[in-house]
């Protein structure tokens, strides 16, 4: 586990679906390299996602770690504890 990975029960599908819902877009519109700031994610939505994931059992989700690299692939790697090679396939 890398320095920024947290122990969660979240799946790639759940993380991508939650991000997409926060942005108001379909999950299949997100790619591994999607910059979430460019996609319209603001700090309020990020805080809402962090709280949602904490409520789902990801107590160690860290706002600064996610905010420092707001890219889908990075978030999946941090939250799911495994390298994300294909976000699109997570939705299949």
TrEMBL record:
Residue span, Carrier domain: 6-83
Domain of life: Bacteria
Pfam families: PP-binding (PF00550)
InterPro entries registered for this protein in UniProt: ACP-like_sf, PP-bd_ACP
Species this protein is from: Williamsia limnetica
Name used for this protein in its record: Aryl carrier-like protein
């Amino acid at each position: 586990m890398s320095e920024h990975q947290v122990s969660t029960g979240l799946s790639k599908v759940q993380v991508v679906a939650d991000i997409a819902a926060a942005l108001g877009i379909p999950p299949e519109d997100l790619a591994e390299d999607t910059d979430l700031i460019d996609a319209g994610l603001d700090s309020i939505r990020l805080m809402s996602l962090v709280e949602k994931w904490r409520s789902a059992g990801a107590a160690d989700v860290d706002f600064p770690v996610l905010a420092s690299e707001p890219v889908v692939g990075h978030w999946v790697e941090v939250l799911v504890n495994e390298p994300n090679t294909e976000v699109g396939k997570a939705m299949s």
